[in-house]
User: What shape does this take?
Amino acid sequence: MDELNGWLGAREVAGNLRELRPVARRRGGRLVLAGGGERTLLDFSSNDYLGLSEHPEVVEGSRRALEEWGAGSGAARLMSGDLLLAHRLEEAVASLKGQEAALLFGSGYLANAGIIPALVGREDVIFADRLDHASIYDGCRLSGARLRRFRHNDLSHLEELLRGERGQGQALIVVESLYSMDGDRCPLRELVALKERHDCLLLVDEAHATGVFGANGGGLVEEEGAGAGVDLVMGTFGKALGSYGAYAAGSATMVRYLLNRARSFIFSTALPPAVLGASMAAVELVRTRPELRAELHRRVAVFKEELRQGGWSRPLGPSQIVPVPVGGSPEASGLAAALLDRGLYVTAVRPPTVPEGTARLRISITRHHGEADLREAVALILAAIRRHAPSLLA
Ligand SMILES: *Cc1c(COP(=O)(O)O)cnc(C)c1O
Assistant: This one.
């Protein structure tokens, strides 16, 4: 116990201790923390970008599935847990992603932890962007493949590594299409050209892009027209789709292979009916209501414009995820705490989620936020920066 306490103490001193914060109530982009009195906070930390977690059709889809099938799926898919509902959802997702087939996973974490070791092993090599999500890195470790990390979005660095270390075995490149903590985009078309020159597999994680980008909400792979060059696209239902669980989409052969090979699929209970029903309704909404996306993008534009008019001159990136770079962990936590005091809930993202010295506020805009909320949030953020980190406005 002394060792554990020592470790926790060191974390705390560095400003990197993590703690849970129970939410007592939440609705429409606002929340009340348990033990926080009746104070309502504006929530700018959620990944429910389109507000679908509360959409009546999603809630109704979930309720219908729950009533028809019960609470649990009862077993893994390869046992008796293979509900027809899951197949319908896989067809809908494959079509949303413009791929032949799709396979569901329990979560995005489980998807990456299962897919990567299914594709590569000890004789092989993985090239991963430095800022790839932890679940990707855990999948890489589980695979036992050699791992080479390239500088974030730096394809010349990737090419240099490919020239020197491609080797004879299988090579897998793993990227995110929209980076979760930086909100910037991967140069997908250039990447596809590169992976073809060097005969690699390409896995793209679309966790934050699905539902938000693409004419049909299929994500950035759709928007860039890169689907044919990507071997496997994964994503989660837990973000813009407002539900839970994840999928991988690719060729029919790829999906048949994963279903036989990905251990996190084979040895884990199927997603419950209520979750499948919610995800199904969410995919339908994303496909048929482009105005949901358009509304989100308008809100993002308002937020950024307000920030610029208030004196912010640094880049704000191309997406609904807006990082405010702070640097030190204690400073980032201090800024988040000051904002919380004034009614704004934003996350201070610190190491090890992001590299040492790059702690930031991660502001996430959702369709829940009306213009008045956006203006209020910007005013609070600028006031807190002026007070606690004025150099950011220089
Ligand atoms: C959130 C996230 C995951 C994990 O998905 P979950 O469904 O939350 O487990 C994987 N990759 C990226 C890039 C993510 O942001």
Observations:
- The two ends are 46 Å apart (CA to CA).
- The chain has a mean pLDDT of 96.
